[in-house]
Design brief:
By secondary structure, the chain is mainly α. It has one domain. It is about 70% helix and about 0% strand. The chain is built from 7 helices and no strands. The longest helix has 21 residues, at about 60-80.
């Protein structure tokens, strides 16, 4: 008898606690990550000019920071792919084309196809002439 009474008390307390918590809708975050927006747009196929046009109302300093972060990401990805070694051991045009295709792919995924500063950075770091891109 006491066990039933204790069970009912505990059950009623749990139900009361569950019903007393407020039910709210999930809220969108207040801060917007320009980096994630840039990446999403680039993965959807937008080129650099289109992305910059869509983000023209954003803070210019934030855009510069995002581009710097994207440049560093591209350079680290190219290092991980051993681009310098692949370029140095390339013996024919197909090998060279493979290296340039890897670089073009990284630029396209980052949405920095027409970023001259990044192309200069690639040339300086890896010794690959970027005039073809």
């Amino acid at each position: 008898m006491k066990l039933r009474w204790l069970f009912r008390v505990v059950l009623s307390v749990l139900i009361w606690a569950a019903l007393s918590t407020p039910f709210t809708m999930a809220q969108a975050p207040t801060s917007v990550s320009i980096y994630s927006i840039w990446i999403r747009l680039s993965l959807r196929g937008f080129n650099q000019e289109e992305i910059e046009s869509l983000l023209r109302n954003m803070d210019p300093k934030s855009i510069v920071l995002v581009k710097d972060r994207l440049r560093r990401t591209v350079l680290s990805n190219l290092e991980a792919k051993n681009i310098r070694e692949r370029f140095l051991i390339s013996r024919d045009s197909d090998d060279l084309k493979s290296v340039l295709t890897s670089i073009e792919t990284e630029l396209r995924f980052a949405g920095l196809q027409s970023d001259d500063q990044l192309k200069l950075m690639i040339k300086n770091r890896f010794g690959i002439p970027m005039e073809r891109l």
